[in-house]
Write a structure and sequence with these properties.
- This protein is mainly α.
- It has one domain (2-192).
- The chain has helices spanning 2-16, 20-26, 42-49, 54-76, 82-98, 111-121, 123-140, 143-161, 166-182, 184-192.
Length: 206
């Protein structure tokens, strides 16, 4: 089982290094991390390139998240730990997304990947994230505030729905807290009133 676990975690981490925003901007001979906030995430991509190619970013980040969960889950399924494998694969791919060794450890913040990790493990948590994120976003136009509160909801969701499975509960709680940590600079700017608002559904650069 341990060999399967190591293979699953390593594969998931490496999949996390496949960053959608970096890949799509690289096709334009550019690097999204050299613009705006310097973050390799969907929001910074839309701010600097518009939403025309954002779908490709979503497909890459969503695909790698789902694939990583399933790979680790299926490797551990013969040992009776399918759900645990999904959760551990999700944690590993998020670490790879946030801290990609192949990209100089300059990655994204894990919100988009986190949504599809949640969807793969437990659709109820994914629905909770969407409700919290879009509720806050449409009320304030602050993507970061919606992301932070959705990340907290991510952790709470895993604690509530999977309190009877320590591995799954802790993996989910850690992923949510990690996403909050990745937004620490945004949190400071929010408190100072310096955070930028973002119009995700307009095909413009702000």
């Amino acid at each position: 089982m341990w060999i399967s676990l190591v293979i699953g975690l390593l594969t998931s981490y490496l999949l996390g290094n496949l960053n959608g925003a970096v890949c799509v901007s690289a096709l334009q001979h550019d690097d999204v991390r050299s613009h705006g906030s310097g973050n390799a995430g969907l929001t910074n991509f839309i701010r600097n390139y518009g939403r025309g190619q954002a779908l490709y970013v979503v497909l890459i980040d969503a695909g790698k998240a789902v694939l990583a969960c399933l790979v680790t889950g299926l490797l551990l399924k013969p040992h009776g730990y399918y759900l645990e494998g999904l959760a551990l694969g999700g944690l590993a791919v998020m670490l790879g997304h946030n801290f990609p060794a192949l990209l100089g450890f300059r990655g994204g913040k894990g919100i988009l990947s986190g949504l599809f990790i949640a969807l793969t493990i437990d659709w109820r948590i994914a629905v909770l994230l969407l409700i919290v994120f879009f509720g806050i976003y449409f009320a304030t136009r602050y993507v970061s505030l919606g992301s932070v509160l959705a990340s907290i909801a991510f952790s709470v969701g895993f604690i509530v729905f999977h309190h009877d499975n320590l591995v799954v509960m802790l993996s989910g709680a850690v992923m949510g807290l990690l996403a909050v940590f990745m937004h620490r600079a945004n949190i400071v700017r929010l408190f100072k009133g310096q955070e930028r608002k973002t119009h995700l559904f307009r095909n413009i650069k702000e």
